[in-house]
Write a structure and sequence with these properties.
Two copies of one chain form a homodimer. Chain A has 225 residues and is α+β, with helices and mostly antiparallel strands. Chain A contains eight helices and eleven strands. The longest helix of chain A is centred in the middle third of the chain and has 26 residues. The N and C termini of chain A lie far apart (57 Å). Chains A and B meet through helix 3, helix 4 and helix 8 of A and helix 3, helix 4 and helix 8 of B. The first copy, chain A, binds a DNA duplex (30 and 30 nucleotides) through helix 7.
Chain lengths: 225, 225
Amino acid sequence: MKGLTERLGNCVLFNNMDVKEVVNVLNRVEYRVNSFGKEGIIAHEGEECTSLGIVLEGYIEVRKTYASGKTVVLTRLNQGSIFGEAIIFSKLHRYPSTIVSMTDSKIMHISRRDVIALCSSYPSVLERFMEVLSERILMLSRKVRELSYETLRHKICSFIMEMYEKQKSNILKVPITRQNMAEYLGVQRPSLSRELIRMKEDGLIDFDRDTITIKDINALEEFLT
Amino acid sequence: MKGLTERLGNCVLFNNMDVKEVVNVLNRVEYRVNSFGKEGIIAHEGEECTSLGIVLEGYIEVRKTYASGKTVVLTRLNQGSIFGEAIIFSKLHRYPSTIVSMTDSKIMHISRRDVIALCSSYPSVLERFMEVLSERILMLSRKVRELSYETLRHKICSFIMEMYEKQKSNILKVPITRQNMAEYLGVQRPSLSRELIRMKEDGLIDFDRDTITIKDINALEEFLT
DNA sequence: GAAAGTATGTAACATATGTTACCGAATAAA
DNA sequence: TTTATTCGGTAACATATGTTACATACTTTC
């Protein structure tokens, strides 16, 4: 297949390899490349997942399908993305969602066994793979923490403390609009305004259109614990 | 150090290796073993993390410390547990929290480089490492999903559908008390009762002390999307 | 600089859930 | 069987946040 080497070189697992090495990789593993049309099913929810998927061409969607027929798009993956990377190494290695091709697409599959072989032979692949898994863990941990805040005031405190870490000043420039800040925190804008006013009344902060001034940083932190 | 081999054999990364192989491992890597007393700091928040930690003896806590001085315990790790496994492979490899020894403890450190070397040489270690990271990803994903439910009714629907998947019947035996169910869903017991009653009024379910009967499974699923 | 458009604060009201208290039913103990 | 204890449903009230609407202040465009 023409262009396969370049395609693979785009993949997050191989993008710091030179061409020769990628060719080497291709010779060492028993890969499988399948073509799909628009709306073609790449993997069904519940199906066994025994191989890593790599999007060589096209773009695909990961969807959750409910018995009622409704589907929800969880993520979109385009060229160079991989999928199933966490599933193949988990105990219950079954796809938790359905994977659908959104365009004409070409998908490479590398078996779990060969992924291990690749990681053993190419430390750079191993490192990239670990990096992908690790970044995902950190991203999810952050998300869990954010979702765990119980009240709007908690979220705002966390948001302010994050800015404080970066700007290291009690007078913080808020780089986004109220609307965006509300979206970022997952609340309605009027709710955000109202709570900011209450926090001002409580002597925690002061604020105007595009700055927030920290009045009582101890109280803000205390509140987060 | 006496007993090191057995101690390491308990570790999640090496627990399917035989003794000889573990000895082999020990000869191949430049490990470091440090001792800590009670309340000894194993790693400070913000510090660079360049090595994998293994708890050989004792038990330790992962804590978040706030400038106000307050600390929150995030997890406890005992013998055989590892820490820093996601951090060493992430881009910003700094401890996000402080790690404190709770008893006298012995901690082994293996550098990132040697972890890679180990994974390259011992496919079983590689597999176990991947399994650890993958299971963590799946656990976190589940948690994010659960935390993302907006209303109590969403949580209840999800809870019911989970039971339905297992029991495959419209009449579900609820294996826990209301109190525990409320705790599991993270709400107050009266709130749970009230919402169950509303769902009964809405014709979605019927229930008594220890069973829930699904009346309209489509509506339940529909509601989750 | 005036007009139009957009962002923000504010208020009134609706809804969801927490909180507390109480009562009756189920269960365990005597 | 009686008594004590726990569990679950119920109600009244408190609080947090969503929802909608509107007025004011800021920004952009001409």
